[in-house]
Amino acid sequence: MARSREQVAQLLTSAPGRSVLLSVALGLALLAPAGPAPAAAPPGRSAPSLWDPHHRPDKPDMKSLRQIRFLTEDEFPPFNFAGAGGALEGFNVDLARAICAELGVTCTIQARRWDTIVAAIETGQADVIAAGLAATPEARSRLLFTDPYFRLPARFATQRSNGLSDFSAASLAGKRIAVTAGTSHEAWLAAFLPAARRVPKPTDALARETLMKGEADALFGDGVALSFWVNGTASKDCCTLAGGPYLESRFFGPGLAMAVRPENTTLKRAIDFALFQLWERGTWADLVRRWFPVDPFVGDH
User: Which of 2, 79, 154, 160 has the CB geometry, 3.0–4.6 Å to 246, for a possible disulfide?
Assistant: First the structure.
């Protein structure tokens, strides 16, 4: 079924949509020792810490690699979903195609039910999972993961009119920060901004409503979901992304990666090489701008 941009936004900012995002990479983090908040990534470019420009992956011998069969699923917008006429669309889908073009190989991309996708790879029905599978210890015992190709950043959102621009620990002391209770975002605030006044709410919707009503100075949460919310009708154009992105892996996970069978080391190295090339050339950033109406790593536009 085709989904409009607004439907995608509703999926991502609803409780079910958020649970999908959390199941990919977040989980509730343990409180770290209190201390200075980790520095936010520099603004102005997407995911600046995702790849190390000084560590360039080598391209492996491609003689044995002529085709790559990707598997994804079709209910995780904007990463992968069924578009008009049932055709697969999304960030993961376009990224898989760009990898094949970079490597000069043909590729196929098929959708499978989420609960069958790992078994399909293990039994040789396909080569690569490109669906945001979390690299948990159990998954790593069965699969070989590529370098991360997407991080799930944490971001602040503020009302456009409140003028809050300094997100240092000192400036946020005493400020009211809305957050969804029991999440890794609340844990991060408690660990690194203990002097801020946390305003925990039981759901994302109530946390966002708190900001819209002016009962909080800022909202802290998942940057991907917030990027769709600030751009959608539900926010009534009240708010903008601000501060960050915050990519602390202890709280927000190591990021999304692709997965192959453990013996497919050449394929893993080839994908790592292609991902670096796509990032360095700007293709990766172009895909982010295509699929995210507000770049979750940079801010509002």
Answer: 154
